[in-house]
Amino acid sequence: MPTAFIRLAICAGACVALLGLGGCAAVGRLAQLDDGWYHVEHLGGNDSLATQLRQATRYRVYVQQRTDTLLLSPYTDQPQPTTYTYELQSNHHALLSSRSFDVDVFTLPVKARPPREGVPVQLNTTFSAAVYLGRRLDYYYLHKHTLAPWQHEPRIRATGLGYGVFFGMGSTNVTNDVTRQHAGPEYEGFVLHAGMATIYDARIFNVGLAVGFDNLLGPDRAYWIYQRRPWFGLLFGLDLN
């Protein structure tokens, strides 16, 4: 049991380090905002325009970035929409958001199983993978960064949050201790898993917290003490697109 907690602490520390990278300049940084529909949450230095856009369009605005200027076109059925301009400022930031449906593939490097039938906390680090489906909310912070008194450039920082469900497959160690003395020789069993998760996307990597259950396949499934019992784990993936 102490060994399991030590391994869990190491994995938790690694995750904290990954989350700490979210504060670094490279993580979550975009070179250019994609043209598209966004929700206008805040326009620093011109909140009256932000309020006007929210009241008139329920946040639905088509946004285009032209260097340090945003072109904001509220949704309309008219062929010639009204377009507002907003220049990014160094002492204020603009905040935009978007909502979407998210599909990702993750690994599950850690599963922590609560104590059961005299077996202490178990830390499962065998192979596991999952397909994640859920809702996603992205935030975009934009401002003008001063490089020198005569030189500026736009800066965009993006983060994504999500929640949803996942399903996948993996393996687990099957021993006599976890099969009520029915397993015989120790082996790696094949499991199918499913559950719910929350996701943090820093654009370079994705991490999440998951709650799920496993379904062991094979003759020992009827004796496996963790069959369809909840576990807690971590999701991890890389953004390759």
TrEMBL record:
Superkingdom: Bacteria
Keywords: Signal
UniProt signal peptide: 1-25
Keyword Signal: yes
Protein name per the record: Outer membrane protein beta-barrel domain-containing protein
Protein species of origin: Hymenobacter profundi
